[in-house]
Design a protein that fits this description.
There is one protein chain. By secondary structure, the protein is mainly α. The chain is built from 18 helices and six strands. The protein is globular. It starts with a strand and ends in a 27-residue tail after the last helix. It binds acetyl coenzyme *A. Acetyl coenzyme *A binds next to loops.
């Protein structure tokens, strides 16, 4: 962050002296006004619920240009990464800042593979859940529980602990998600197979049974890997900010990532992929494409409370670049599985076309986000709808860890402690109960 030549001057209409505030440039993107000394200088806070104009940290990991619809991981466009790199290379890039060469990739993949199993006790912990528990409820519990198994790596201030926790979390997330699925299906857990790719191993743990040899379909393996790459990081979104805030207290990495999982669950964030597919299925039940117009009227009616799930984004005011890639993957998977005429895919395309031409969406710059097509891909692969957000969590884990580790390494980091504008009762006395 570079100090700019110009300053921002904050003046007041009531005679309070004005204050000069430093301005910093990033390498690209909007400048920031540094308000850290504002309270000391004026006795005032800034007010920005939802962080609409507030940079909560400096970061060198992911950059989004929401107007252009551009997403870069460490400077590399998502389109190039999704086309030329796999998830292991993407993880290496996010964690260490560079794309590995062949030897570096093999070494990193080997390190992750070494940690794919979870402690056998984990399955007994899982057994405490109802069979119909939501996978995100299970994941919140299981990820937090990892801290009880790895006492040797819970010191967030120790770089070696942070490194081994990062590798453990990336390695174990697929195992935990697959266990949550197998538990709900009443099938035996499948141990990881380390000769498979990261995505291939996940498919094996999900879909194999001890009775038959399972052969990984390369088209589906590539599609899943792409889902992982596209979801790997997205700068300071709600769950990442949750991880940073949680980690800022010095809690252990497993606890901080569990907080991220819990935040991701919400339908305004990662839960949108599940909500989007449920929405498409509901419209299909109502009569499909012929009912799209009626559904859109509901979406545009503010009193209905209905949103077009998978549309809109706080940052993107243009097409989410991940949605384009996901639509491409969606076509590939449906063709490979002979599902070209999938009614939900056709419905999604019809909805998208109508929305992109409708004034309501055009004026508000609402475009499809990554979740619009990811559910259709996952459903075609055979993943149950309730597991979609857990797969998002699996993929986002690397981003959360990279951001958490970046925060700990930042000399300017402090415990996160927002302030407030108090609108409650001023000081008053407690009356004896008979007089209240
Ligand atoms: N359907 C209908 N109207 C919408 C939608 C939508 N999906 N999204 C936004 N709008 C409208 C709002 O009602 C608002 O209208 P108004 O100005 O007339 O009041 C306007 O567009 C601006 O929307 P906000 O809600 O103010 O935008 P915000 O940045 O707070 O919300 C969010 C972004 C939460 C993603 C929102 O667009 C949404 O709820 N989308 C649906 C859920 C979804 O797909 N979430 C996934 C996000 S991507 C991810 O997490 C991977």
């Amino acid at each position: 962050m570079k100090l700019a030549d110009n300053k921002a001057t904050l003046s007041f209409s009531n005679g309070t002296p004005s204050v000069d505030l430093p301005v910093y440039h990033g390498n690209v993107g909007p400048d920031v006004v540094d308000i850290r000394k504002l309270y000391a200088q004026t006795g005032m806070f800034t007010y920005d619920p939802g962080f609409l104009s507030t940079a909560s940290c400096q970061s060198a990991i992911t950059y989004i240009d929401g107007d252009k619809g551009e997403l870069l991981y460490r400077g590399y466009p998502i389109e190039q990464l999704a086309t030329n790199c796999d998830f292991m290379e993407t993880c290496h890039l996010l964690l260490y800042g560079n794309l590995p060469d062949a030897a570096g990739k093999a070494n990193f993949t080997q390190r992750v593979s070494n940690h794919t199993m979870v402690n056998e006790q984990m399955q007994f912990f899982l057994r405490g859940f109802r069979r119909d528990a939501h996978p995100m409820a299970i994941m919140t519990g299981l990820v937090g529980a990892l801290s009880a198994f790895y006492h040797d790596s819970t010191d967030i201030n120790n770089p070696e602990h942070r490194e081994i926790s990062a590798i453990r979390l990336i390695a174990k997330m697929p195992t935990l998600v697959a266990m949550a699925y197998k538990y709900s299906a009443g099938q035996p857990y499948m141990y990881p197979k380390n000769n498979l790719s990261y995505a291939g191993n996940f498919m094996h743990m999900m879909f194999a049974t001890p009775c038959e040899e399972y052969v990984v379909n390369p088209v589906i393996e590539r599609a899943l890997d792409r889902i992982f790459v596209l979801h790997a990081d997205h700068e300071q979104n709600a769950s990442t900010s949750t991880v940073r805030l949680c980690g800022s207290s010095g809690t252990n990495p497993f606890a901080a990532i569990a907080a991220g999982v819990a935040c991701l669950w919400g339908p305004a964030h990662g839960g949108a992929n599940e909500a989007c597919l449920n929405m498409l299925e509901d419209i299909q039940k109502m009569g499909g494409i012929s009912k799209v117009g009626q559904f859109m009227e509901q979406v545009k009616d503010k009193n209905s409370g209905v949103k077009l799930m998978g549309f809109g984004h706080r940052v993107y005011k243009n097409y989410d670049p991940r949605a384009k890639l996901m639509q491409e993957t969606c076509k590939e998977v449906l063709t490979a599985l002979g599902l070209e005429n999938d009614p939900l895919f056709k419905l999604a395309m019809a909805l998208e076309k109508i929305a992109l031409e409708d004034d309501y969406f055009v004026q508000r710059k609402l475009y499809p986000n990554v979740d619009f097509y990811s559910g259709i891909v996952q459903r075609a692969i055979g993943i149950p709808v309730s597991l979609f957000t857990a797969i998002f969590a699996l993929a986002r884990t690397v981003g959360w860890i990279a951001q958490l580790n970046e925060m700990i390494g930042d000399p300017e980091y402090k415990i996160g402690r927002p302030r407030q504008l108090f609108t409650g009762s001023v000081k008053r006395d407690v009356m004896p109960i008979a007089q209240r």
